């Protein structure tokens, strides 16, 4: 299946992510970013420790045509040896 | 009265359900009925069917004729789906972890299978993913056999020397040197903490062939290596949370992962799933539901679990899982 240039594609979203992840991951509370899916369409999924109002108001709702969604991690992401 | 939304074949199935549901629900084990697609051998055939949900499937020979689900109802094919008992509001009286017994996969076992506790002698404990061999030469007689796990499990987050002892169970689970040495650190991919991209937290340790089993407890033998998509269901067996399943919520993820002592590694091209692990599960092999390896579990939070893409693990360690 071919896509028109304006239609978001899975390849395109990675390029958008790489373009923006630098500044997004500088925001305090943002710990990750990846390609997620919402309503059957690829979206940018931001991993944040806690979706505080102070943080979410700094986040764009879309980036280069892709929806930006937020997933709370509940805390920092840590390696999982025994603790 | 709600407006009828169904049309065509769906309406025919709905009418059949309306007519037959009381006699179907009266049968042994039946928990519910509905409209669905017929699933054959795990594949959605696309054929509309009258789906009968049962608490558990049993051999037809054990059921009386009156309790068997007919192959067709009003000329509509039936499909029987096993759901377990259905309760409102989640699982009934969840058994607390304490009652499950003390960490089953934390015991000493030979040969060791994927899912069991292992660890470098200086760490606490993690999980063995599976057993692997060198990618080259292939096909050939392998020079050595290895267990696969994380760098932070087998190589103490870079602070180890090749040949270091790997204990099974891991030190936290009572493994001691030299009695419980199962393998020796053979290779690891160093983790950089300078903000540049890491793709894997992975290492292998060489052990005697007869002590390293490719089988993963509860999952079985890895059939191949595959990629996953968002929304796919995945499974793993690990030392702490045993057998768990999860759903992929992101691929190609860049994640900052805390290694303790203020050290943070940027991990790129990772898989993110719903929470399916806890401390001690690091090193578990993530598989799709067809037993293809897709990831190597290494980190998480209370809400998500992070896995390396298994293709990077194979390539960077120069190993094959199958």
List the helices and strands and how they pair.
The complex is a heterodimer of chains A (83) and B (322).
Chain A: H1 10-26, E1 30-38, E2 41-48, H2 53-56, E3 62-63, E4 66-72, E5 78-79
Parallel strand pairs in A: 2-4
Antiparallel strand pairs in A: 1-2, 3-4
Chain B: H1 8-25, E1 30-40, E2 43-54, E3 72-73, E4 76-82, E5 112-114, E6 117-120, E7 126-127, E8 130-134, E9 145-149, H2 151-154, E10 165-167, E11 181-188, E12 197-198, E13 203-206, E14 212-216, E15 224-225, E16 233-238, E17 242-258, E18 264-274, E19 285-288, E20 292-300, E21 304-309, H3 310-317, E22 319-320
Parallel strand pairs in B: 2-4, 5-14, 12-18, 15-20
Antiparallel strand pairs in B: 1-2, 3-4, 6-7, 6-10, 8-9, 8-22, 9-13, 10-11, 11-13, 16-17, 16-19, 17-18, 18-21, 19-20, 20-21
Task: Give structural notes.
The complex is a heterodimer of chains A (83) and B (322). Chain A has 83 residues and is an alpha+beta fold. Chain A has a domain at 28-72. Chain A has two helices and five strands. Chain A has helices spanning 10-26, 53-56, and strands spanning 30-38, 41-48, 62-63, 66-72, 78-79. Chain A has a four-stranded mixed β-sheet with strand order 1-2-4-3, covered by helices on one side. In chain A, a hairpin with a 2-residue loop joins β3 (62-63) and β4. Chain B is mainly β and 322 residues long. Chain B folds into three domains: 8-82, no CATH class; 95-216, no CATH class; 220-320, Beta Barrel (Thrombin, subunit H), CATH 2.40.10. Chain B is built from three helices and 22 strands. In chain B, strands 7-6-10-11-13-9-8-22 form an eight-stranded antiparallel β-sheet. A six-stranded antiparallel beta barrel of chain B has the order 16-17-18-21-20-19. In chain B, β6 (117-120) and β7 form a beta hairpin. The longest helix of chain B has 18 residues, at 8-25. Chain B is elongated, with a radius of gyration of 24 Å. Classes of the chains: A alpha+beta (83), B mainly beta (322). The A-B interface holds A 14, 17, 21, 25, 31-37, 42, 45, 47, 49, 71-83 and B 119, 123-126, 150, 152-153, 157, 170, 172, 201, 230-231, 239-240, 249-260, 270, 272, 277-282, 297-306.
